[in-house]
Amino acid sequence: MSTDASGGEATGVPVTVTADAAREALSLLEGEGMDTDVSGLRLFVQQGGCAGLSYGMRFDTEPEEDDQVTEQHGLRVFVDPASMNYVGGAKLDYESGLQAAGFHVENPNVESECGCGESFRT
After folding, report:
1. What is 2-121's CATH number?
2. How many CB atoms lie within 10 A of CB 33?
3. Could you tell me the CA-to-CA distances from 72 to 15, 37, 95, 100, 107 in Å, in that order?
4. Confidence band for 7, pLDDT divided at 50, 70 and 90
5. CA-to-CA distance for 92 and 52, rounded, in angstroms?
6. Core domain spans which residues (predicted)?
7. SS3 readout for 41-89
8. What is the pTM of this model?
9. In the chain, where are the structural domains located?
10. Quick one: pLDDT at residue 9?
11. To the nearest whole number, what is the mean pLDDT of the chain?
């Protein structure tokens, strides 16, 4: 399901969320005492990093009026219109391994990434 916060159908290709990412984010949301029926994970793009743009994520209690809201595996993801231009069609995953664990954005819009994978250019 993908709508804008006013209830209308969203434009653009939504962000997809893996079951692992949703499970981890929901666990963190609940740990913060947030209502997972209303709250969600905000994915956004900001200026920064050696390649020019970087991803940001935070929990929000509710979407903004013009956000695209995607709900998958019980997790609500909020993306503002400007960020959607960069992350539309991306996949949010959670990876855990021996050296690092965390959320990872697989973005088909990226032309190049920096060596550490923290910033990108479209």
Report:
1. 2.60.300.12
2. 7
3. 10, 12, 18, 25, 17
4. very low
5. 20
6. 15-118
7. EEEEEEECCCCCEEEEEEEECCCCCCCEEEEECCEEEEECHHHHHHHCC
8. 0.81
9. 2-121
10. 41
11. 82
Q: In the predicted model, what is the mean pLDDT of residues 106-112?
A: 76
pLDDT of residue 51: 59
Identify the three-state secondary structure at position 21: helix
Residue with tokens 């990093």: 49
State the Cα–Cα distance between residues 55 and 44, nearest whole angstrom: 6
Question: Which of 57, 39, 53 has the alpha carbon at shortest distance from 85?
Answer: 53
Q: Which residue has the tokens 């029926």?
A: 37
Query: Two tokens at 74?
Result: 């019980």
